C-alpha cells in the first residue's frame, strides 16, 4: 500500500503570497450558532424491510404507546406478539439555525437504531425534536428519501448506498425559537476559526481602516471586540459591511497531517528537514548537512542499497515522501519515520495524526 501524498497545487501555493479573505470566512460572530435537535420516532410503510421486533422490543413498545394515544388499546400479550416488518424505530436529528422562527421549515436526518434493512419508501410519523434542555423546538414528519438506491440511467446498472439512513428536506417545522443576542453592552465579538495573533491584528487594522479608527480592538489571539450601533437595524447593516471586509490572513504554522488508515499525507506549506538519521526496519533516511548546496538532486535513493534514502539538509519533505513511496513504504512506515524526525527536532512542523 503506497502513501498518497496530497499536495495538489502546492507548488503555486508555496510560491504565491497569502490572498485576502473575507471576515465571514475567517471568523464567526459570537453567540450566532446552530443548536442540535434530536428525537425518537417511527418510520412506517416499509416493504418488509423494517425491524425484527423479536430483537428490537422498543419498536413494539413505541407502536403500542402510539396506538393507545389514538384510542386503540392492546393488552400486554397482544403488544408483545406484534409483527411489525413494515415499521422501524429511528432517531431523528436536525440543526436549528440561528434566528430560526416558529413556522420555518428545516431539514431532518432519519437514522435507524434497530435492525431494519432499509428505510427506503418509509414515512416518518409525527416526532418531537428536543434540544439539550429537554424543550420541544420542532416537529418532524414526512416521507424519507434514501439516496443512491435503485437503477442507474437507462436501467444499465444498479447503485445501492447506505439504506439505513435518509433525509426529509423541509421535514420539520420550528415550534420554538432560540434567542440570539447580537453582542453585549454596545459591543459585538468576532471569534477567529483558528487562534492567530497575526490574523487578529490584520483583522483589527482592516476593520478600523474601513469602519473608522477605534471600531475594533483585539482581546486576544482569537477574539475581537467591535463597537456596534445600538438599534437592531443599524447593527445588522453594520455587521453586513464588516463581514465582507477583506483581510490578509497570516501564514499558518507549518503542519503535516497523516492519516494511516487511508495512507494520506497533507502538508499546508513547504516543510524542510534538518540534519538527522532515521533507521526503521530495513529503511534508512539520512539527512546530511554536509550535502547542503551540493550538486545533484536533493533526494537520492541509493542504487546499491535500495533501502537507503539520502537527503540534502533543507530538502522538501514532499520529495522524501515520494522517495519512500518508490521503496514501497506503507503508511505506518511513513508515520513512524515522521514521528522519529519530529522527536529528534529535524521536522520543523506540527505533526498531526488523524
Protein described:
The chain is flat. It folds into 3 domains: 19-32 and 181-248, Gyrase A, domain 2, CATH 3.30.1360; 35-174, no CATH class; 253-353, no CATH class. The protein has helices spanning 10-15, 23-26, 57-69, 76-80, 197-211, 232-242, 317-326, 331-343; strands at 4-6, 20-22, 27-29, 35-44, 88-96, 105-112, 123-130, 136-143, 150-151, 158-159, 165-174, 187-192, 216-218, 223-227, 246-248, 255-259, 264-267, 276-280, 283-288, 299-301, 308-312, 350-353. The strands form 6 sheets. The chain has a 6-stranded antiparallel β-barrel. Strand 20 (299-301) and strand 21 form a beta hairpin. Residues 1-17 and 291-296 have low confidence and may be disordered. It contains 8 helices and 22 strands. The chain is α+β, with helices and mostly antiparallel strands. Helices cover 22% and strands 32% of the residues. The two termini are 18 Å apart. This is Flagellar P-ring protein. One of its GO terms (cellular component) is bacterial-type flagellum basal body, distal rod, P ring. Belongs to the FlgI family. It holds the Pfam family FlgI.
**Portion in beta strands:** 25-35%
- Number of strand segments: 22
Total count of helical runs of at least 4 residues: 8
> What would you call the structural class?
alpha+beta
Biggest sheet: strands, sense, closure? 6 strands, antiparallel, barrel
Series of secondary-structure elements, N-terminal to C-terminal:
EHEHEEHHEEEEEEEEHEEHEEEEEEEHHE
- pLDDT under 50 segments (min length 5)? 1-17, 291-296
Radius of gyration, Cα only, in angstroms? 29 Å
Helix amount: 10-25%
As laid out across the biggest beta sheet, the strand order is: 4-5-6-11-8-7
Taken together, the total number of domains comes to: 3
**Anisotropy-based shape:** flat
- Mean pLDDT reading: 79
Tell me the span between the first and last alpha carbons: 18 Å
GO molecular function: structural molecule activity
Subunit structure: The basal body constitutes a major portion of the flagellar organelle and consists of four rings (L,P,S, and M) mounted on a central rod.
Pfam families: FlgI
Subcellular location: Bacterial flagellum basal body
